[in-house]
Amino acid sequence: LIFLRHHIDDGLKYEYLTVENPLELWQNLNDRFEHLKAVVLPKALNNWSQLRFQDFKTVSEYNSTLFKIVSQLKVCGEVITEDMLLEKTYRTFHASNVLLQQQYRLHGFKKYRELIGSFLIAEQNNELLLQNHENRPTGSAPLPEVNATLSDFRGRGRGHGRGRGSGRNQNFLGPRNNNSMKWQNPDTKQRQKWSNPGQSSKDEQTQNKKGNCNRCGMEGRWYRACCTAKHWVDLYQASLKEKDKRI
């Protein structure tokens, strides 16, 4: 009695609340709903006859509708075999897919699930094919990858020795010190245009006339444009203070 009342509708629970015999409750439900088979069967048979594979946009929609109708037919006592499912699908192909329907018949499927599995695979492959076709026009080359372009640009910049610390300048300056070295324009003439002559000291002007840097002693370089490493500068400054000793 508890099992029957648990699985019936809430409205029926209150309607048969006074019935305490489970056999009596079962007979009442059977008398009330036995005629539904006679109502459901004609509608299910009609839906089965009108069902066509070509009326659905996707294979999944057709498969779901088919099994819904088959379930109703089985509840009403009708027998639906695998051959009936296969024939129903083959005969309802679109007229433009006659050759495709013949190819699936020649494949010799014995079970309906095997046929639907082939449909799903073919549908997925066709969607990918159309998507790739619509991404770019026919005959057009793909766009270059961003990483490849950047690596090519960086390779050109370093390979020709235009970057800081490349070639013989790197050997002269010694190991890099990121804390003490700041990038400056090595072009002396361009640097002189940027600098204000009125802001430089008299010692710098005197030293620049000789052509040597006050900081590192290198020719053709301003003090403010010097990018020599700090330990090299310290050695040069020490050599100026102790000229008679070997450093």
From TrEMBL:
| Location of the region described as Disordered in the Swiss-Prot/TrEMBL record | 133-214
Task: List, as start-end ranges, the regions of compositional bias called Polar residues.
Answer: 169-200
Q: Where is the composition biased (Basic residues)?
A: 156-165
Cleavable signal peptide? none
PANTHER family in UniProt: ZINC FINGER, CCHC-TYPE-RELATED
**Under which name does UniProt file this protein?**
UBN2 domain-containing protein
Organism whose genome encodes this protein: Cephalotus follicularis
Q: What is the lineage of its organism?
A: Eukaryota, Viridiplantae, Streptophyta, Embryophyta, Tracheophyta
